[in-house]
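[Discussion] Sanity-checking designs against the backbone

I'm trying to build intuition for which residues belong where. Below is a structure token string of 206 positions. I'd appreciate it if someone posts a full sequence so I can compare it with mine line by line.
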């Protein structure tokens, strides 16, 4: 066509115009917002494929723009960690923790080894939960009776027993001679041997 541009020249002109527009978007010092999206800014934020957004008002989660600035992502959803929890990609409101992949409220439930138990005041003993006001836990085993202490895998009240290296003996306030307990009022321990009476340990004998 006389006086006009042929097809190859027209295509080149369109490409130059596209490049100029992109450079204008990136280096322009001005900023114009429309519904929270910034189209002209010096350092643009991208979400997905060339989607601009303002992080002060929006959050990008896996390519999806969500309302609310500088939040955390749970899959494709944005959430406020002070009000919600994300458990394995599932969003739950008004919870404070995750038990495995299940959200829960610790005021009413206890999580032990990814299992939920009813009651927020419970404690974990291995993979099970127990009530510390009525039971005691020793190395993963639950015993009836609160505020007991452990001697190996056994629970006991120190008002009535003495524990020596994992072995439990009857009697309060006793001392240990090896793995055996003895009453220092009536016995003496010499080199892991118990002797009757108050004696002195000398050499290889009592």
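Best answer:
Here's mine. Compare freely.
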């Amino acid at each position: 066509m006389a006086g006009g541009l042929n097809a190859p020249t027209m295509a080149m002109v369109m490409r130059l115009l596209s490049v100029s527009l992109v450079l204008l978007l990136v280096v322009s010092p001005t900023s114009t917002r429309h519904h929270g999206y910034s189209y002209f800014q010096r350092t643009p934020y991208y979400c997905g494929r060339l989607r601009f957004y303002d992080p002060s008002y929006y959050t990008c989660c896996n390519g999806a723009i969500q309302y609310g600035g500088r939040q955390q992502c749970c899959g494709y959803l944005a959430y406020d960690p002070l009000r919600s929890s994300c458990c394995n990609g599932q969003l739950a409101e008004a919870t404070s923790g995750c038990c495995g992949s299940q959200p829960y409220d610790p005021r009413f439930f206890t999580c032990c080894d990814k299992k939920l138990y009813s009651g927020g005041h419970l404690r974990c003993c291995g993979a099970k939960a127990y009530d510390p006001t009525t039971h005691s836990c020793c190395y993963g085993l639950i015993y009836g009776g609160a505020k007991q202490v452990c001697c190996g895998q056994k629970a006991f009240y120190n008002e009535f027993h003495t524990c020596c290296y994992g072995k439990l003996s009857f009697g309060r306030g006793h001392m240990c001679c090896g793995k055996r307990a003895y009453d220092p009022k009536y016995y003496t321990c010499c080199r892991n041997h118990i002797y009757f009476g108050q004696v002195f340990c000398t050499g290889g004998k009592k």
